[in-house]
TrEMBL record:
Record SMART domains: PKS_ER
Pfam families: ADH_N, ADH_zinc_N
Annotated Enoyl reductase (ER) domain residues: 13-242
Protein name: Alcohol dehydrogenase
Recorded GO MF terms: oxidoreductase activity
Source organism of the structure: uncultured Quadrisphaera sp
Length: 250
């Protein structure tokens, strides 16, 4: 099958290790199901992989791609949930120390076919194309969990999203606005601030700007560059939800 691979890693020149070529179809573990992909989305994770983040010696070449949608062997249209838990793990999957994302230990979705645990195949939501659904699993599910499981916010709450141009942040803005939250964003880029407003943000600020009032919750994925502002912008008793630290740990 044709696939996009990381054949080498290079922090300074990540695309040097990217190759598109035929690879053998992987042998699936028991209980896994095949999906013939119609669409796969890029995630910054793919670039981190090509830079060598999380790649163990002897693992290359590996098939990239965490997210996708397609058709399973029963003809069902499905999206592929990217989190693979340890064999036998029965608890909350984010707590599994042995969990991985597709492409980390098993071939990913930037290919004609992917294998995933059968429980990871989710019927395509009505009204979504395969292209739209292929964007949902990792970034949008992360954003969903941050907003609706972890933040304590409710419709009408003011939620600050740091680094509005990011993949997770884009999903936070769209989902938060759809749920009736007042979403404020920061971004270094005027064009990305405009884009966030078009996606439903109520206001957009430069990084570090003094806000009109303190917010109920902050969505943090940037880390060191925005952490101090996040804490300063929060009302007493508010919540900071952290899913990563792109600019370094605070
Ligand atoms: N993508 C996922 O599916 C996913 C899932 C779970 C966790 N995470 C974690 O979430 C974090 C973000 O992931 P992502 O894929 O959304 O990343 P991304 O698309 O690369 O976006 C990162 C954003 O961070 C902001 N940023 C980066 N460096 C900055 C700096 N020095 N100063 C200020 N802002 C800076 C930028 O916002 P502006 O350009 O708008 O300022 C940028 O758009 C990562 O730590 C990742 O591990 C990601």
């Amino acid at each position: 099958m044709l696939a996009a691979l990381a054949t080498a890693v290079d922090d300074a020149d990540p695309l040097a290790g990217l190759a598109v070529r035929d690879v053998p179809v992987p042998a699936p573990p028991p209980g896994w199901a095949r999906v013939r992909l119609r669409a796969a989305s890029l995630n910054h994770h793919d670039l981190w992989t090509l830079r060598g983040v999380g790649v163990r010696p002897g693992q290359l070449p590996l098939v990239l791609g965490t997210d996708g949608a397609g058709v399973d062997d029963d003809g069902r249209e499905v999206l592929v949930h990217a989190v693979v838990t340890s064999p036998g793990w029965a608890g909350e999957e984010t707590q599994d120390p042995g969990r991985s994302l597709l492409s980390e230990r098993h071939p990913g979705t930037l290919a004609e076919e992917v294998w995933a645990p059968a429980r990871n195949l989710v019927p395509l939501p009505e009204g979504l194309s395969a292209v739209e659904a292929a964007c949902l699993p990792t970034a949008w599910l992360t954003a969903y969990r941050m907003l609706f499981t972890r933040s304590g916010a409710a419709p009408g709450s003011t939620v600050l999203v740091q680094g509005a141009g990011g993949g997770v942040s884009t999903a936070l803005v769209a989902l938060g606005a759809a749920a009736g939250y007042r979403v404020w964003v920061t971004s270094r880029s005027p064009a990305k601030r405009e884009r966030a407003l078009a996606l439903g943000a109520a206001a957009a600020f430069e990084p570090g700007a003094r806000l009109p009032e303190r917010v109920d919750a902050v969505m943090e994925s940037v880390g060191e560059a925005t952490w101090e502002h996040s804490v300063r912008s929060l009302r007493p008793g508010g919540t900071v939800v952290v899913c990563g630290a792109t600019s370094g740990e605070a």
